[in-house]
User: What shape does this take?
Amino acid sequence: MSFHLHLSGHVEEAVERTLPGLVSSLVASALTAGDDSLWGATAQAEASRRLGWVQAVSTSRPLVPEILALREELVAHGTTRIVLAGMGGSSLAPEVIAQTAGVPLTILDSTAPGQVLAAIDGDAEAGGLDRTVLVVSSKSGSTIETDSALRAFDAAFRDVGIDPAERIVVVTDPGSPLEAASGSAGYRTFTADPTVGGRYSALTAFGLVPAGLAGVDIVELLDEAEATLLEVAIDDPGNPALVLAAAIAGGEPRRDKLGLVTDGTHIVGLPEWIEQLIAESTGKQGTGILPVPLLPVSPELETRPEDLQVVRLVDDAAEFHLFEHHHGEVLVSGSLGAQFVVWEYATAIAGRLLGINPFDQPDVESAKAAARGLLDERPPSIAPAFVADGVEVRVSDPVLAAPGTIAGVLDALWSRVPGDGYVAIHAYVDRLEYAPLEGLRELVAADSGRPTTFGWGPRFLHSTGQFHKGGPARGVFLQILESTDVDLEIPGRPFTFGELIHAQAVGDATVLAEGHGRPVVTLTLTDPQVDVMSLFEAAQ
Assistant: This one.
């Protein structure tokens, strides 16, 4: 068995109550057969064209020789540095695959100018632009972040006398605007199965092309996944996907915060992939499951909120010594390929338990539209409520600014969190330059006393962004922006990367506050190197 689960306590009881109904309803075999009626009549049209992922292993096999042949060609020409421009599932799955395999893959899932420039420039270890291949991944073929990265790299290649057609590889759906543009430009193109949604695409061209070009053994990955397919297809109480679905979406009252702890597993970065899969799939119609990636020492594991279900990713979930120490948790272990398969099945089945369509994302477009509107209209910047220690403070409600200090504003924001709510931190900054900022999550979780998520902007807009707007109205939001002199033009566009990421941040804050009535505090660091410390001090 390539995937193991262990349950105990309340979650075991919840599964025991929920599992018989899933088995008797033949949910597993129906899903494997592509039954689009599993989620009700209103979801059937969408489901009918979004179930190709259950056959991803077999449909992806023919791609492997083409990917490996291109890899050999690139290596022969000394182009071994692979940069992936993609958002959401198009970047998170390949990132996990490459990190777990210990293979370098540069991820560009940001519009922060400094991060874009770093991706273009490279470094002494991996090499610069002369050794770089860009993989552009977009299902729709119109993702603004990905399109902007493509434009920037195309221009950069031309500036140094390199033919972009030799260095740019495109992964997209057939018939997309990107496929058409790629054909005209002469880029190498891989088309993916259009019946697979982005967040379910780990084992399709979107996961395999960038990972395979980077040097991952993608044959082994597909073999791992294939070894699990029979287990998830049978209508049996031992089906790990049914058990996991019941564990995360069953029970009464249901625990709707899902703490994801990496604790001894060989897999690197899996919680971030699970986060986008579950949050975007379930966070709609006022319900959903909020994944919260945690450290083994995170505050939530000390306080154990009643609405938090912990899933611990371990080396071997059958190890007896783990049972006593982690009572009431879900212990999970398995190969990476197996994890992809089981979590995708479990998420789709969880959608059935929640009574929602797990394949649409109705609230994602709102933030995109708001950003486009800001870029078109260019309204004047809103003055901060006040400035303290170099940090500009803006609030959705003037009452939040009344304390006049950053620490006071944060306390005022935490006071708006309901007893079953959560805090979301969104950092629209260069995550390479300010990686330690992610540590703020631990301080905020301790200070607020509630489960806290952390997302790098704008990439979270393509994952948890759906949950924050379509899920339960129980979140409060802390935005962190940076003021920087670093900027980069986007060829063919009337705005820069700096203007784009600012519009994305302001647009999202506007939708959250004005469209959904969520409390939002925005902190702009005018001298980030210094102001980050002020922020950490205020959050303690």
